[in-house]
Amino acid sequence: MSTTTSPKPSPLHPYAGRFDVHTSIPEHGIPREQILDELRQMSTEEDRMGDSGRVSGSIYSGDHDHYGFLIEAFGFYAHANVLQRDMYPSATKLEAEIIAMTASMLHGDDDTGGLITSGGTESLVTAMLTYREWGRSQKGITEPEVIMPVTAHPALDKAFHYFGIKVIKAPVTAEFLVDIDFVREHIGRNTVALIGSAGTYPHGLIDPIPALGQLALEHGIGLHVDGCLGGFILPWADELGYPVAPFDLGVAGVTSMSADTHKYGYALKGSSVLLFKPKSMRSEQYFMIAGWPGGMYASPSMGGSRSGGLIAATWASMLALGKEGYRTIAADIFRTAAEIKAAVRSHPELLLIGDSAFNVAFRSDVLDIFHVNDGLAQRGWRMNGLQVPPALHFCVTRPNTQAGVSEAFAHDLTEAIEYAKNPPQQMPISGAMYGAGGVVPDHDRIFKMLVRRLDAMHEVQ
Ligand SMILES: Cc1ncc(COP(=O)(O)O)c(C=O)c1O
What we know:
CATH topology of the largest domain: Aspartate Aminotransferase, domain 2
Structural class: alpha/beta
Bound molecules: pyridoxal-5'-phosphate
Helix content: 25-40%
CATH architecture of the largest domain: 3-Layer(aba) Sandwich
Mean pLDDT: 95
Distance between the termini: 14 Å
Low-confidence stretches: 434-440
């Protein structure tokens, strides 16, 4: 049967019982208006949460007028496969300009080149493939190693897993920045690259990129800066009066950097920029095969066919906002983050982790921070739970800069702390999976649970 209506809604399937469930292509097409109406209902209801301004990270622009404009730009090329450059030469113009504009913002030079990828993960995975190939071609390294801070993003672990790269995890200091001495001591003859973040996902902090760059130069190895999160917001900080440490391609020794256009670039989801300096590094991961019956095959990156729509929308976002637009939004974000930090600082029970201009992370020595999170969640806030140490972060984006949001947060945080002092149940509802109140979690059991959840995310109900 192709359509059924299941009566039982659940958190993964809230629409069960409300809309038809399709398990095979309907024999006869469904009227467009009905399809659009269903999508409209679901997306309108789901957008309410992000638009409320009470969500950490995730939705970076939230400006539906801007989205409307991007969707118009997307529409011109949604169907275009940018592999076919003879048919769509505009893709070369748009991609090259996105790369050039990003490189110029991040202090690249004439010898900086780049790629457009589908997001932060692909940018990081591609960068790691590049270093593996570069190590092999330039230094004859067959068992490549990369040193990365424990705070760097797990997409890098994904790359190491995919590509058989050995990772050495560097601890962080009391300031939650990579321990440079550890990195120095662990560089060996198989090391192909070091990693630093600008800023880190957990705490929004910038690793000591100049010191990492110095080590990379001394040892003739690569240094990737993961600016997936911070790459489009940190460039505006200094001039807006929020000093940040040097973090980009202008730092000696940095050989690649990722910056996500689909985060603080305010483009549509599915785009990121990966920059290489020197440009020649880019070709280390090009893939070519000569004798295939389908023809000579050459591919610049992971993907095969790609839609021109995302490239057009990304280009349109950068041009429509201009530096002035980025600066204006950044000023609002930095101001809101400062207000949220002030709220956190006003509570002796809470401790800020570092001092990020945009991502406010905090923990507690006297309360279970996940009880605080439960109190905030009950008041409509969607924070991100962290571990090692247990903490929360509020990654401030444009929807959070709406009038009244930081004041409401300050008010609700006070109530959430009172809630956490005397919670109705011993175990917090949120973060229990990895916070677990200081108990070392049973990874095997949790991984099995996660596999079940990932499976369930791909099943109809
Ligand atoms: C620092 C950092 N790097 C990489 C990523 C991965 O990006 P994506 O989710 O676009 O794959 C993220 C995502 O939040 C991030 O914060």
